[in-house]
Design goal:
This protein is mainly α. Helices cover 82% and strands 0% of the residues. It has one domain (1-360). It has helices spanning 2-42, 44-54, 59-90, 94-103, 105-135, 145-154, 160-182, 188-236, 242-273, 279-303, 312-329, 337-369. The longest helix is centred in the middle third of the chain and has 49 residues, at 188-236. It is globular, with a radius of gyration of 23 Å.
C-alpha cells in the first residue's frame, strides 16, 4: 500500500537528491532535503483538506486532479513561480532569470540580493496573514492552549489580522526609513519598496482567500442543487440530470482544490526564499515535496483517516508564522539558512510528538473508562 501510493515520490526523491549533489555538493543536498521537509510540513494541512474534498469526487475527477493537478501544482507553482518572482522583482525576463541562475551565479545572486527586500516583504506579509487567520480562529482542538485560547477570543474582532499585519508592515518600513536617515538617505527607496511589496502580499492573500471562498460557496450551492434533484427524481420516478449536476459539483471541487493548492504553494515558495535564493535547489526541493503532498492526499483518501495527528496542522501554521517573522527580519539582517530551515522542522516535529502523546493519552483513557466519549478534552501536555 505504502509503496504503491508513494512509489513515484520515493523515485523522484532519489533523483532530486542525486541531482542536488551533482549540482552543488552535499551542502546543496542538505538544502534540498530541508526544502522538501518544509514543503511537506507546510502543505500537510492542505493534503488533509484535499483528501476531504477528493473523496467526494468520482474516479474521473480524482484522476484529473492527480494528473492535470500535479502538472499545475508541481511544474506551474513550484518550478515556474519562483522564476517569475525573481524576474518581476529584479525587472528582468523569465528566460534571462533562468539563464543567469544557471550560467552566471554571481550576477544572479546580486540581482536576488537587490530584490530580496521586496521578495521578503511580499512573502512575509502573505505568510503572516495565513498564520494570523489561523491563530485568531476559534477551534475545538487547541495545541498551545495558553496562547490559542486568548487569541481566539481576540479573533472575534473583525479584520484584526489585517490590522496587525499592516501595523507590522508600517513598523518594518519605518525602521528602514530611520535606517536611511542615519546613512545619508541611501535606503529611502528601499523603505518605499518594502511598503509597496508588503501591501501587494496582503492584497494577494485577500484575493486568493476570496477566490477560495467563492469556489467553496459555489460548491455548496451545487451540492444542494444535486441533493434537491435526487429528491425530485425519487418523487417523480424520472431520470433527471443528476450526473450533469454531479459533474458541475465535481468541476467546482476541482477549481476549488486548484485555488487551495495555489495558496499553499505561495507559502512553500515564499518560505523557500527564506532558506535559499538558488532557483535550481528551490525547484528540486519544492518539486519533490509537492509530489509527497499529492501522494499523501491519495493515501489519506484510501485509508479514510484524516485526523490521526491533530496538532500537525497547528505546527505547520506556527512554522509559517516563524518564517513570516524571519523573512521580515532578513530585510535588514542576514540569518543563516540552517536556522530558518530548522525552526520549521522543529515546530513540526514538536507538534507530531504532541499528537502522539495525545493519542496515547486517549487510548489510555479509553481503556480505563471503557468509553471514548471524552476525546476532545484530553490535554496536550503543553
Amino acid at each position: 500500500m505504502i509503496l504503491k501510493t508513494f512509489g513515484w515520490s520515493f523515485a523522484i526523491t532519489v533523483i532530486g537528491l542525486a541531482v542536488a549533489v551533482l549540482y552543488g555538493g552535499w551542502e546543496a543536498f542538505g538544502i534540498v532535503a530541508i526544502l522538501c521537509v518544509l514543503e511537506i510540513s507546510l502543505s500537510f494541512d492542505n493534503a488533509v483538506v484535499n483528501a476531504g474534498i477528493l473523496q467526494k469526487m468520482n474516479a474521473f475527477w480524482q484522476k484529473i486532479f492527480l494528473t492535470v493537478g500535479v502538472l499545475i501544482a508541481v511544474f506551474g507553482m513550484r518550478l515556474v513561480f519562483p522564476v517569475v518572482i525573481v524576474a518581476i522583482s529584479a525587472k528582468i525576463g523569465p528566460i534571462e532569470a533562468v539563464d543567469l541562475a544557471l550560467n552566471d551565479a554571481d550576477r544572479y545572486q546580486e540581482l536576488v540580493t537587490d530584490a530580496h527586500p521586496s521578495i521578503a516583504a511580499f512573502g512575509g506579509m502573505f505568510l503572516l496573514m495565513i498564520f494570523l487567520d489561523f491563530i485568531f480562529e476559534e477551534r475545538d482542538i487547541q495545541w498551545l492552549r495558553w496562547i490559542e485560547r486568548p487569541l481566539a477570543k481576540l479573533g472575534k474582532v473583525d479584520m484584526l489580522s489585517v490590522c496587525i499585519a499592516l501595523v507590522v508592515l508600517l513598523i518594518t518600513s519605518m525602521t528602514f526609513a530611520t535606517h536611511a536617515h542615519q546613512h545619508g538617505g541611501a535606503h529611502v527607496d528601499k523603505a518605499q519598496t518594502v511598503l509597496i511589496s508588503g501591501i501587494a502580499g496582503l492584497i494577494t492573500y485577500l484575493v486568493v482567500g476570496g477566490l477560495s471562498g467563492y469556489f467553496e460557496n459555489k460548491l455548496e450551492e451545487e451540492e444542494e442543487r444535486e441533493h434537491e434533484a435526487e429528491e425530485e427524481a425519487k418523487r417523480s420516478g424520472k431520470k433527471v440530470t443528476v450526473v450533469q449536476l454531479a459533474g458541475k459539483a465535481a468541476f467546482f471541487m476541482f477549481l476549488y482544490l486548484e485555488v487551495l493548492d495555489a495558496s499553499f504553494s505561495f507559502d512553500g515558495v515564499i518560505g523557500a526564499f527564506a532558506i535559499t535564493n538558488d532557483i535550481v535547489l528551490m525547484a528540486l526541493g519544492l518539486g519533490v515535496g509537492a509530489m509527497y503532498v499529492r501522494s499523501l492526499t491519495v493515501y489519506l483518501v484510501r485509508q479514510g483517516t484524516l485526523d490521526d495527528y491533530v496538532y500537525l496542522e497547528h505546527g505547520a501554521h506556527y512554522a509559517i508564522g516563524a518564517l513570516a517573522v524571519l523573512l521580515m527580519v532578513t530585510i535588514q539582517y542576514e540569518i543563516p539558512e540552517v536556522i530558518t530551515g530548522s525552526i520549521g522542522v522543529l515546530l513540526i516535529a514538536w507538534s507530531f510528538w504532541s499528537s502522539v502523546r495525545r493519542n496515547k493519552a486517549l487510548a489510555a483513557a479509553e481503556g480505563g473508562s471503557g468509553s471514548s466519549d471524552d476525546k476532545t478534552e484530553v490535554p496536550s501536555g503543553v
